[in-house]
């Protein structure tokens, strides 16, 4: 809403949303449910926008090249995420057990083990 009010609150992590559908999609991150499937392969995702981003991996145009290996990527964000695998950097840390991860999505999946 335009008022900034966020009346829809997650019962698991207390994150709040202004629209009920946003809460619905958020709650899927806690259940591990992946109802959105790629039309090009068997991969499934928890959010529709993840499928859209993933679809780009099926396109031939991959202008972003890794300077460490031979891999090419469709988006700069994919290259950035991949580059971390070469650096060994793990900037995402679990607040409950201090385990570290190179990708935020890995931390999110790990957090489910604590619930």
UniProtKB/TrEMBL annotation:
<protein>
    <recommendedName>
        <fullName>C2H2-type domain-containing protein</fullName>
    </recommendedName>
</protein>
<dbReference type="GO" id="GO:0003677">
    <property type="term" value="F:DNA binding"/>
</dbReference>
<comment type="similarity">
    <text>Belongs to the krueppel C2H2-type zinc-finger protein family.</text>
</comment>
<keyword id="KW-0539">Nucleus</keyword>
<keyword id="KW-0804">Transcription</keyword>
<dbReference type="Pfam" id="PF00096">
    <property type="entry name" value="zf-C2H2"/>
</dbReference>
<dbReference type="GO" id="GO:0005634">
    <property type="term" value="C:nucleus"/>
</dbReference>
<keyword id="KW-0805">Transcription regulation</keyword>
<dbReference type="InterPro" id="IPR036236">
    <property type="entry name" value="Znf_C2H2_sf"/>
</dbReference>
<feature type="domain" description="C2H2-type">
    <location>
        <begin position="64"/>
        <end position="91"/>
    </location>
</feature>
<keyword id="KW-0677">Repeat</keyword>
<feature type="domain" description="C2H2-type">
    <location>
        <begin position="8"/>
        <end position="35"/>
    </location>
</feature>
<dbReference type="InterPro" id="IPR013087">
    <property type="entry name" value="Znf_C2H2_type"/>
</dbReference>
<keyword id="KW-0862">Zinc</keyword>
<dbReference type="GO" id="GO:0008270">
    <property type="term" value="F:zinc ion binding"/>
</dbReference>
<feature type="domain" description="C2H2-type">
    <location>
        <begin position="36"/>
        <end position="63"/>
    </location>
</feature>
<keyword id="KW-0479">Metal-binding</keyword>
<feature type="domain" description="C2H2-type">
    <location>
        <begin position="92"/>
        <end position="115"/>
    </location>
</feature>
<keyword id="KW-0863">Zinc-finger</keyword>
<keyword id="KW-0238">DNA-binding</keyword>
<dbReference type="InterPro" id="IPR050826">
    <property type="entry name" value="Krueppel_C2H2_ZnFinger"/>
</dbReference>
């Amino acid at each position: 809403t335009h008022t900034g009010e966020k009346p829809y609150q997650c019962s698991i992590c207390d994150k709040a949303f202004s629209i009920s559908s946003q809460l619905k999609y958020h709650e899927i991150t806690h259940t591990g449910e992946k109802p959105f499937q790629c039309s090009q392969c068997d991969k499934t995702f928890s959010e529709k926008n993840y499928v859209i981003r993933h679809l780009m991996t099926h396109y031939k145009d991959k202008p972003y090249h890794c300077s460490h290996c031979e891999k090419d990527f469709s988006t700069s964000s994919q290259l950035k995420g991949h580059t971390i695998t070469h650096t060994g950097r793990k900037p995402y840390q679990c607040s409950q057990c201090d385990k570290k991860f190179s990708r935020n999505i890995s931390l999110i999946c790990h957090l489910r083990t604590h619930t």
